[in-house]
Amino acid sequence: MESKFDRTRIANENILKSVRAPLTKSITEFPIIKFNHLWCIKNFSLIPIENELICSPDFSPPISKDKWFIKLRPKTFDKQTEAEYIGIHLFLKSCEDTSKSQQRAKYIISVLDVDGNRKFTVECSRQEGRIFKAGIEGHGFKLIAPRDILLDPNRNMLGHDDTLQILCEITVFGEMDNKFVPVRDFNLYNDCELASRSITSDFASLIKSTLDCDIIVVSKDGSEFDAHRLVLKARSPVFKAMFEEEKAESRIEIPDFEAVVINDMLYFIYTDNIVEARINKIADQLLLAAEKYKLQRLKMLCEQYLASKISFERCDYLLSLSNLCNCKRLREKVLEFKETIS
C-alpha cells in the first residue's frame, strides 16, 4: 500500500555539525610591544637649579623605529609637604609610520639605587594605557622621588659617581589587525549525505517501504497506514498495552483523528521529528493525539509551538485545550498572557 508520509527535512544532525572542522577561519590580533630603557644621568647633584628640564637621547623599541624620549625635572617643589622632588615624564617624538601621529601605551617609571633595585616606582593609572601624541603630549609624574633622599650619601641612591638611574618600562598597544586564513576542507560528506544514512532516515524509509509491517492503523476518514507493532510498542505505552492483550487485532481503528493527524503522529513515532510544513495547521489535534497515546516528546513539541501562537482570539481555546491535555506549562503561559491584556 502506498505510504501517505510526506517528504520532510531530516533534523537532529546537530551533533555532526558540532564536530566538523571549520571551512574558513579568521584571526584578530591585537599586537603588543614591550620594551624598556635605562637612562643614566651622571653628576646629577651638580645639575644647575636653573635647568628646569633635561631630555634623554631618543630611543626606540627593538622592532620599531618609533622614537621616544624622557624628560626629567631636576627640581619640583611640593607646596603641601614643602619638599623638593624630581619629576619624570615619557614622550613620543615620532612614529615610524609617517601616516600616524600618536600611539597608545602604558608605562612604569622607576628610580633605581646603585644596586639596580627599584626604590621609587610610579605607573600609568589606566590599564588600557594613555594616548601619546607625537612631539606634543607626554605622561608621567611631577613628584616621584624626594631630592633629599636622592642626594643623601647614606641612602646609596647615586653612588660614588653621582649617577641617577631612571628605568622606563613601556607597553605599546598596536592597532587591531584582522586576517583571513584559508583552511583545508577535510569534510568528506555534506550534511545531506550524512543525514541520509542516519537512524532517523532509515526509520523514515522503513515506514515508506511497508517492509515487514504487521499492523494497520485506520484513521477517522478510513485511510489506512501500515506500521510495525514493535515500533509502536517501543514508543507508546498505550500501544504497548493494546498489543499485549491476548486477542490483539491486526487493525487499529482510531476514530478520533483525520488521516493527516495519524500520518504525522506515526511519522513522529518512527523519526522523533515533526512535519514542520504542517504543524501550524494541526498542532492542536496532534497535541490531543500525543496526550491520548502518551507520546511525551511530541506533546512537548506541540505545546511549544502553540505557546508561540498565543493571541487574544485563541486565548480561551488554548486555555481549554491545555486543561484537557494536562499541559501545565502551556496553561501557565496562557494565563500570563491573559493578565497582560486584562
UniProtKB/TrEMBL annotation:
Entries under PROSITE patterns matching the protein: BTB (PS50097), MATH (PS50144)
One Pfam family linked to the record: BTB
PANTHER family referenced in this protein's UniProt entry, alphabetically: BTB/POZ AND MATH DOMAIN-CONTAINING PROTEIN 1, OS07G0655300 PROTEIN
Superkingdom per UniProt: Eukaryota
Full protein name: Uncharacterized protein
InterPro entries assigned to the protein according to its UniProt record, in alphabetical order: BPM1-6 (IPR045005), BTB/POZ_dom (IPR000210), MATH/TRAF_dom (IPR002083), SKP1/BTB/POZ_sf (IPR011333), TRAF-like (IPR008974)
A biological process term (GO) from this entry: protein ubiquitination
Domain called MATH: residue spans: 34-170
Domain BTB span(s) in chain numbering: 213-278
